[in-house]
Write a structure and sequence with these properties.
single chain, 247 residues, alpha+beta, four-stranded antiparallel sheet, 4 helices, elongated
Length: 247
């Protein structure tokens, strides 16, 4: 009787070259904005390749990769990727950045007006009312669609409902309002719901509330990269090479 064939084995990945990270091929620098005069105008975008729910690279790491502690280098200096708030203005402490397949991390060299490292969510466009972001944030908020039937059920008069519909998307209400027409209950409703905090309270349980883009800042007083020619290098916490490109 012939013997059974040996069980099939998965092919093994070739050994890594000395100094190369096991995340090589899984995480990449996709762009570097190095022009402009100030370090808060300069940024690098890092992306984990693949699609949500998949495994990337050499198969030796989970789908989400912790990028906190990784290093971005130029030929003259470097910076360490910090932790970030999962929900800015709400969370008390920062967390490690767990980047899933398809997720992006924007690393700004300087210190912008809004100085918190954070994960983007469906409500962060409210923060653009008082802050400028580079690169710019998407202009979209889940409370942009107002429910007229709900407002009528609340007993709001026509002037109140018109005032609510006049509030721009991703903006807090700006008066003055006619107190004789816009009653206190109406003003309380607008102040509670049309703000960053109100938006988070109303929509944080939605499945698409948290986005897979993070923004962090190195806080450098000078630019990290030469605007003309340089090498951008990404290293893991052990100092091993993940990705690089020259320009």
């Amino acid at each position: 009787q012939p013997s059974a064939p040996p069980p099939a084995t998965a092919p093994t990945a070739p050994p890594l070259a000395p100094g190369v990270s096991p995340y090589r091929g899984a995480v990449a620098i996709t762009s570097a904005q190095r022009f402009g005069d100030r370090p808060d105008q300069e940024y690098v975008i890092i992306r984990q390749r693949g699609f949500a729910g998949s495994f990337s690279g050499r198969g030796t790491h989970p789908a989400a990769i912790d990028l906190t502690g990784w290093r971005i280098e130029s030929l003259r200096s470097s910076g360490i990727i910090p932790r970030a708030f999962n929900i800015p203005e709400i969370d008390a402490t920062e967390q490690d950045i767990l980047l899933p397949p398809g997720g992006e991390l924007v690393v700004v060299s300087g210190t912008p007006p809004y100085q918190k490292n954070f994960r983007e969510n469906a409500c962060v466009s409210y923060l653009t009312q008082t802050n400028t972001f580079t690169p710019s944030l998407a202009w979209s908020c889940p409370d942009a669609q107002r429910d007229r039937s709900d407002l009528l059920r609340r007993g709001f008069n026509g002037a109140c409902i018109d005032a609510i519909f006049a509030v721009p998307s991703c903006r807090t209400p700006q008066g003055p309002f006619n107190a004789a027409l816009i009653k206190g209950e109406c003003l309380d409703y607008m102040n509670k719901n049309f703000s960053y905090v109100g938006c988070v309270e109303n929509f944080r349980d939605d499945k698409d509330f948290l986005k897979n883009t993070w923004r962090v800042y190195l806080g450098r007083p000078q630019k990290l990269f030469d605007a003309r020619h340089d090498k951008v290098t990404l290293r893991d916490p052990q100092g091993l090479l993940v990705d690089e490109f020259e320009y």
